[in-house]
Amino acid sequence: MATSVVAAPPGIENKPRLSFWQIWNMSFGFLGIQFGFALQNANVSRIFETLGGTEIALYWLAAPLTGMLVQPIIGYMSDRTWSPTLGRRRPFFLVGAILASLALLIMPNVSALWMAVGMLWIMDSSINISMEPFRALVGDLLPGDQRTTGFAAQTFFIGVGAVVASMLPWMFTNWFGISNTAPAGQIPPSVKYSFYIGGIAFFSAVLWTVLTTKEYPPADMAEFEAEKRRTAGFWNGIRESFAGIFHMPKTMAQLAIVQFFSWLALFSMWIYTTPAVTSHIYHTTDATSKIYNEGADWVGVCFAVYNGVSAVAALLLPVIARATSRRLTHLICLTLGGLGLISIFFIQDPKMLLVSMVGVGFAWASILSVPYAMLAGALPANKMGYYMGVFNFFIVIPQVVAGLILGFFTKSVFGGESVYTLVLGGVSMIISGLLTLRVHDADEVRLSADATLQNSSPAYDTTIEADPRV
After folding, report:
1. Which of 133, 218, 270, 408 is the most buried (most CB within 10 A)?
2. What is the DSSP string of 302-341?
3. CATH of the domain at 290
4. In the prediction, which pLDDT does 130 show?
């Protein structure tokens, strides 16, 4: 069902509440975006090992270094873009989708390690071009009391897309009999077909959002154009983006520390789950063996499970947040995720990994929605895309740290046992949850103030009737 978001008349500050289908359509593109990320997260380490790579964490540095540059610049540029046809954010959705889809089609056909690393760089950059404006779109179109719902809807589609994408190699092998092994130095056919499906799904889902969603035009077009001319320029965008780190709102600075530890945990999981599971549970390090590829396929199933759990958990987060708070909700979810990662050390039956992934799924759902919901309430509307892009630094920085130190810890401290790296990630995730308790949530402060005024003055008329935690 295609329902367009009707543009608000210029000058309206209180955004109208959107319907279920409007939120559905504006979030649907994340289904495709997550096809790209899920295939990347579950299979790129496998591709590196297949092509003879040994410094896996180091190879992954290509992705965060490009994300550090791409996301804030795209956010800065999208804040200063307005197309009568495509609006502010949708031009970037479309360009990113085209580039990312092409990268997904090329990635499984690389024949050398350096090509795989380079293609990861291109693929991750292209996905980021589409993803960053999607975060800003929630802040653009939804009132404060619907933002958690908006980010939870994105998380739902992220979960659904990742379930399918993560399981694709396993499904091609077990349902259609397509081989999951190949000669040394070649990518298995099941992985190739998975990336082809991912490229098609990415473009199609993003195109749906582009065609069914309308954006609000600038309230004052003349002022908008004057500001755009004053601040235009690629290098100005770079300078402003990096300067934004030193001018962050209080809430954003507090969330940055939370993000660092939670994303360090995630990157340890994405980089090392395949080598940890294949060596610790399947007892092999031979990337050409059948047992190794069975283990690698099972990692894809595990990733599908945590993403499936996250899709369901995303629907529960607004309920939990309304009953408690967004901060406590994040703490609970991250603790479950941390315990899930730590539990892998004690597992020998591959099927029990699915239990571990339940906790990870709750953490993933919260990481993708709650910090952004808290952040959106603390940002100025005219810099929503810019600050959302700057916020990406605190996803990128822990990935750079992961690339630089996790390899050392795995080899020199943990004696090559990747499973200990997952335990380290679990501890990091729990620390992140505890740090959430010190975050200043502007929406909850406003809600409390409105409730106090309403109770003290019968004549007080508040425009905030719904809980912004929903």
Report:
1. 133
2. HHHHHHHHHHHHHHHHHHHHHHS-HHHHHHHHHHHHHHHH
3. 1.20.1250.20
4. 84
